[in-house]
């Protein structure tokens, strides 16, 4: 919470507006239970807020009230401090990007014309629109030639990229995304999620993202609002906080029993305090190495053999140490080798799969940085320290 | 051949262009077992020019009027859905009345002549064009309309820039059917003095096959030409439908 707040305060986003729900309520019919009940939450500018919950929890309704494709019954929503009620709906929507699950590209317009839709509505000059279209095609990594194609000629993944580009075309203050990757196969979805996070790192829009998938919510959200039937928010917090301290039983159930593992997916190896192994160099006298091992504060009871550049080669065994000098060929192979930037969950998987107690962690140059063990990870999960390891969605591991 | 009787009035409008000619008594014509008399056809083909022009006029005016009315009704009913069943029923009744009866039913009110024929023909096209327009608009994917609305298109912009272009194939299909069937039904216009290709058929005699084949053949060709023109226009207006999948 504190870290996320700090982010929003220290980096005001000129191209993005905050979104504040102020008791926003939607009731269908005159009586009936509300679809969204007095929703009050604040989405800081430049952040991704994920509305997540089971179907019928009102998350899509809550999102649609922002661009008034659903009109609220009571309360208010402020975009950049201004009430959405005070604006003409069509005018309001042109300032808010809109991406939906079924994409909804215009089948009768080319890709370039689709992307240019909102700039055209806003009356941009032709050259400006063309330049912007070309820029966006590049931003989403689409061949400029595809601009002349029709949507039916593109794959589902390409179409969804165009959907995102179209929503970004007029540089909106806020983006609404309703299960944008829901209809895409799991492999492409993963890639699109990562692409979107990379894109978001550049454009820093305020995004309201709706999904029913808690894993997607954890991955995409700077903050997550977990909603329950009846349109009530059970918890609104950062992903790590939701995973570590579910506010209610409902949230705990919704997040799932594997929330500890999910937390590991939010971290990189570099985020944790690693252990230090006694280092040994080829040709070094084994007596020196044994002396290091004998020190009381040694964290790893095996010496790690490294080359002159401190690149790990393998682990030395008792037998290796019985020799006069450190051999060039250690007894035990290196085992799993991790990168500082590896996702923690994958690192744990490597450790378990390699049946290794310790794994050497190297920096981008391949030099030893520390040692990771299963013990470190389990200690970490037990400690409340995770709370301080907050990253915004775009900085978190997602590859 | 021009015996008075039930069809005594035939030819009122076309007076002067279906004249008796010497070739009308050629031996070929006298024998009903002859399928087609080339000599007669060659000498008399010009007699079909005026009926053909009249026929084209009947069809075009009727279809344009029918389209204007049916299209307007469809747009109104598209926004007010409760209007759809009654309008479908109403145009359905007009479509179901036997054509020939409809011509004569109108006659007491609108008199004899081309106007009556046009009104009847236009009334027939309503159902086809109306229904196809409604179906075409209904088939526009909801997601496309949702996206359009969410991007800030007004209702009017959604209709003209999104829904109607996407409904164009169905609307044109309706126009095509309306056009082709009107070409056929317009041969009955002659019963209320509306002229057209029905004129020479009745006037020249229904038991003279050569005449039937020429007049019928012209109507047949006309239907094909109109159909092809509409098809070409539709293709020109909907280039996205030709773009194959990647």
Question: Helices and strands in order, then pairings?
Answer:
The complex is a heterodimer of chains A (399) and B (246).
Chain A: H1 2-10, E1 19-27, E2 34-43, E3 48-52, H2 59-64, E4 74-79, E5 82-83, H3 89-94, E6 96-100, H4 111-115, H5 117-121, H6 126-139, H7 156-168, E7 174-178, H8 186-203, E8 206-211, H9 214-220, E9 223-228, E10 232-237, H10 239-244, H11 249-255, H12 259-265, E11 279-281, H13 286-294, E12 304-306, E13 312-315, H14 318-322, E14 337-339, H15 344-353, E15 358-362, E16 368-373, H16 374-382
Parallel strand pairs in A: 3-8, 3-9, 6-7, 7-8, 11-12, 14-15
Antiparallel strand pairs in A: 1-2, 1-4, 4-5, 9-10, 12-13, 15-16
Chain B: H1 27-30, H2 38-44, H3 49-79, H4 84-96, H5 99-110, H6 114-138, H7 142-151, H8 155-185, H9 198-204, H10 209-237
Helix pairs in contact in B: 3-6, 3-8, 4-6, 5-6, 6-8, 7-8, 8-10, 9-10
How would you characterize the overall build of this protein?
The complex is a heterodimer of chains A (399) and B (246). Chain A is of the alpha/beta class and 399 residues long. Chain A contains 16 helices and 16 strands. Chain A folds into 2 domains: 2-267, Rossmann fold (3-Layer(aba) Sandwich); 270-386, CBS-domain, CATH 3.10.580.10. The longest helix of chain A is centred in the middle third of the chain and has 18 residues, at 186-203. Residues 1-13 of chain A have low confidence and may be disordered. The longest helix of chain B has 31 residues, at 49-79. Chain B starts with 26 loop residues before the first helix and ends in a 9-residue tail after the last helix. With 246 residues, chain B is mainly alpha-helical. The chains are: A alpha/beta (399), B mainly alpha (246). Chain A binds chain B through residues 67, 69, 89-95, 98, 100-109, 117-118, 121, 149-150, 152-155, 163, 166-167, 176, and chain B through 141-154, 157, 162, 165-166, 238, 240, 243-246.
